[in-house]
Amino acid sequence: MAIVGRSVIINRAAPEVPMEVSPHIDRGDVTHDRPVIVYYDDATGERTALSAAELNSWVNRTANLLTRTGAPGGLAAVLLPPHWRTAAILLGAWSAGFSVEYQGLATAGLPRIGAGATRPIDVTFVAGNQLIYAPAAPTQFLVRLGDDRPLPPSYRDYALDAEAQSQMFRVDTNRHRTDAASPDGTTYQQWGSVAREIAALFALQPGDRILVDVAEHDHPMRWLLAPLAVGATIVLCANLDAAVLEARIKSEAVTRVL
User: For the whole model, what pTM was predicted?
Assistant: First the structure.
């Protein structure tokens, strides 16, 4: 794992939503119709809740999409803010055996994603407002996050392509556990251990409902992997309006605020 500013390079870090990082989903420790991610955008009024089954569906569709656009071991560049679609894309890429270079909310002052890379980028997932930062790649997906901007030339619509894929995907979890998860040799198991250590640092518990302000925590280890590692629900808030915070904590039965 390598981090530059608020950019993180994460390599093939965990299968099946993923077994080493979020075993509670796959092993049945959470109810599949219980929300795993609840996403709010206070600027647009959006609220989207995904159960474990719904998240698994999007992850599997994404993994299948990637296996049709490249081979395991490929490199995906993800230029997306914390969002429920971002969760599905990250988990789907890792499930398909792809390395991921991720850049969240911040771009100013950071190296261009893919700069200095020793290997070509095979696929990109880009939000509409991040297109100017996107590196070239053979396959490029526009990820619509509440906007209807036209599809740029050479780009494919992620949601449309993912919806056309199968909801079933299976990986070799034993192989994933022992594979290197980053250029420094970190394995999948070690990556999962880091997620659990961060969960312990924040005293996250199974069954917690964790409110995350994306402006404060745009690293996926904090807003995604650590909560999933302990079987917690993520209440992910973009453009968080302080005036509604107390009411949201009550309405979502929040037990932890990050």
Answer: 0.85
